[in-house]
Amino acid sequence: xxxxxxxxxxxxxxxYCGAHLCGEHFRxxxxxxxRRELHRQLPGFPGGTVAVxxxxxxxxxxxxxxSRAYFGRRPNVRLVAITVDEGIDGYRSSxxxxxxxxxxxxxxxxxxxRTRDELGTTTDETAExxxxxxxxxxxxxWRRQLLNRAARRLGADVLVLGFNLDDLAQTxxxxxxxxxxxxxxxxxxxxxRQPELxxxxxxxxxxxxxxxxxxxxxxxxxxxxxxxxxxxxxxxNVFREVVWRLEEELPxxxxxxxxxxxxxxxxxxxxxPGVALGRCESCGEPASGPRCRSCTYLAKTTTLLMPQxx
Length: 310
Ligand code: SF4
Ligand SMILES: [Zn+2]
Ligand SMILES: [Zn+2]
Description:
By secondary structure, this protein is α/β, with parallel strands linked by helices.
């Protein structure tokens, strides 16, 4: 099969749009899609500090490299990568090494924050104390909170996340299945600025996971291939499977789910204003109830540690 744009052999096919591309044209198409998304999600961005969440995996590696390409030539933009170390044995150390390797290669400032320092616990420790809770539930909440806190401390105007098309399609379906339409409206990319919450953008939103992987490989970006030892218990796994099967049967489903998300977000904005974020009574971070979800999980683990009466 030939590339649609030149005489080279095609390296990848894109069943959702019927295209075939060689390595060079594929890389250019990824850059173009990311550029278009950043342009659309950050209209008229005047410059400032751009924080990029960097886990050390392929998605955030690609997001950082593409952000650097997009903002790199602007003297009024400071780019900083943030990595959260959740304390996961046999996994985090190699992803941290990959993240450091990439920031050195790209010449980007790098900040590492640890749940041990910020919250006094780790994902491994809490997973042991709360065996009935899937670790991704508190780990994800804590990571999001610490990314936001670190970005805010850096004075960031925006936080770039490495969510790809598959991730976002799974999240839309997951929230629909849980009946949580409001959460679809709150998904990144953010349209509205909430106090204390650094708005998030997702440059890889229209790029499928396997294309992100291929792009990271072709660009020679250092990233870690390892999987978190807790990942098998993630509630998301069944949605990954469902989205994958839907896409096989009906190419373009992921893009349709993304369009549904956009439309739902628009409709929610037209209606009465949703819950305005307040502050958590324990830690002061943004929260939709009296206590944020991060502190709710922390309270669960510390209650277990308290000496029992009698
Ligand atoms: S897979 Fe789950 S437990 Fe592991 S790092 Fe991701 S969110 Fe945390
Ligand atoms: Zn080509
Ligand atoms: Zn809190």
